[in-house]
Amino acid sequence: MATFMEDALVEARRARDAGEVPVGCVFVHNDKVIARGGNEVNVHRNATRHAEFICIDATLAYCREKRLPARQVFSEISVVVTVEPCIMCSAALHTLAVKEIIYGCENDRFGGKTVIDVAAVVGQQINITGGVRADEAMSLLKDFYKGENPAAPPVAKKKK
Amino acid sequence: MDNNGIKDNLRPPAAKKIKTDNFGITAILSDDYKKDITLMQVHSCEVESKQQLQAVIKELALKLPHFQHLKRVHERNVLICPSDDIKDTLEQHLQLHQISENVLKTLCRNVNVIEVPASSAKLRVQYEQMTKYWPCKFHPDKYAESLQNGSNFTVSQRAYHKRMAELLWKLSKDVNDGQNVGICVDPRRPSIVAIAAAGDGSSHQHCVMWLVDHVARSQRGGAWQTDQQFVKDEPHTKSTLSGLPQIFYDYLKQDAACQDLRLGAELPRREEQQPQPEPVEDIHADNLCKYGPYLCTGYDVYLLREPCLMCSMALVHSRVKRIFFLERSDNGALASKFQLHAVKELNHHYEVFQFTM
């Protein structure tokens, strides 16, 4: 499954090029990518448009189109994402009861495993594997936040 | 009713009035604000004379700097260290921390194990309980006190919150088949920015997720496709109604009780600029004033039902100012199952209130 991390990284770079936080995700079903996406927060002015949610929406559309039972399809999906899902995404993925989550680098600010125990709150256990090509995922984030980040000016002001 | 105002004033205070209005707003505070205090076992000693105290305290402060929330000394009693810290004997523990021989002798003479408060007091009620065990330090926090006793809202603010609570009920019952309803309000005017309704069932498209997307619509964004019609703005308006589904707008317009409710959101200010992907952390109402609408910064959210973990975190990401809800949910993440707003590591914290009627 970890081989699909390259697909997720492609989506993360695409998000970066669109001025979004560089996080990418693919949903894998029967060894095939059925949904892919990167963050789309800025373009939609909606802070919940994380890569995982783009893929959840795409999967539901896929199920409608193919007339497949969504609940069952989700239970067979491997989520491959460049950064540990945040509490919101992790809660959604646990509630949808996906098969497993494979992520790159940790999210120490609001990771759904690192910061709080989402599985315990939602009451659903999922296999979670972290650390797959973590350095690449992390360096994408680091480059983004030190680069042309519009949030930078207020930080510079503080230094005065 | 007695029409004579003077007579009214002579009566005992209006206990009656409070009884007839059962509407309450309870702040859901983190465990730090719970009235019950936790205690810990500590080793203390009673020195023979007050003259010994100075040397003892000086050395303890330097070498065993415990109990920042407590006074170290009470009469001739001194707190030495938490009992749990002592592996073997007190004497060995003190030697380990290089306490000088003189002080060590003094401290090992009249040792008691006592219970003292384990953490600092946030509220006066806690402080009063704690001082029964040991003298504590206390820095009163006026705002926390007002949240605790419900005096943080003015009369007109309370009246508005009550109207929103009633509106949640009405919209759910009259327009939405009893499903969850959410209202987003800009509290500055106050004005309704967006309304959404949905079941919080098996899909991820819960009421809160729709509400956040409807607020995005008021900022020329929004991601989810829907058959719902939204209000279209007149050209050159200063505020926008585009976060309001037509069905709710029509309902509010035909309801006589809602005629004076303000509707609409301030438009995003510099539209040519992309919103900041990582906004500055500051007092959030101020950020709404300073930068104009961005996500749900500075906005209040009223919900019929307590949000689940996914929705609660969506509201953190959206930088909501306050959340008010009416009914608890089995999977609620603000009071029932969890208290997301009490997680200190998060980069944004909203206040949470529950209506009681």
UniProtKB/TrEMBL annotation, chain A:
Signal peptide: none
GO annotation (BP), single: tRNA wobble adenosine to inosine editing
Domain CMP/dCMP-type deaminase stretches: 1-114
InterPro entries named among the record's database cross-references: CMP_dCMP_dom (IPR002125), Cytidine_deaminase-like (IPR016193)
Record's keyword annotation contains Hydrolase: yes
Tagged with keyword NADP: no
Keywords: Hydrolase
GO CC term, one of those recorded: cytoplasm
CDD domains: nucleoside_deaminase
One function term, GO molecular function aspect: tRNA-specific adenosine-34 deaminase activity
UniProt cross-references to Gene3D superfamilies, sorted A to Z: Cytidine Deaminase, domain 2
Pfam family, one: dCMP_cyt_deam_1
Protein name according to UniProt: tRNA-specific adenosine deaminase 2
Source organism (scientific name): Drosophila hydei (Fruit fly)
Lineage of the species this protein comes from: Eukaryota, Metazoa, Ecdysozoa, Arthropoda, Hexapoda
Automatic annotation (TrEMBL), chain B:
Cellular component terms per the entry's GO annotation: cytoplasm; nucleus
Protein family membership: Belongs to the cytidine and deoxycytidylate deaminase family. ADAT3 subfamily.
GO biological process per UniProt: tRNA processing
Domain CMP/dCMP-type deaminase: 231-353
Keywords: tRNA processing
Gene Ontology molecular function, alphabetical: tRNA-specific adenosine-34 deaminase activity
Membrane-spanning ranges: none
The protein's name: Probable inactive tRNA-specific adenosine deaminase-like protein 3 isoform X1
Domain of life the protein comes from: Eukaryota
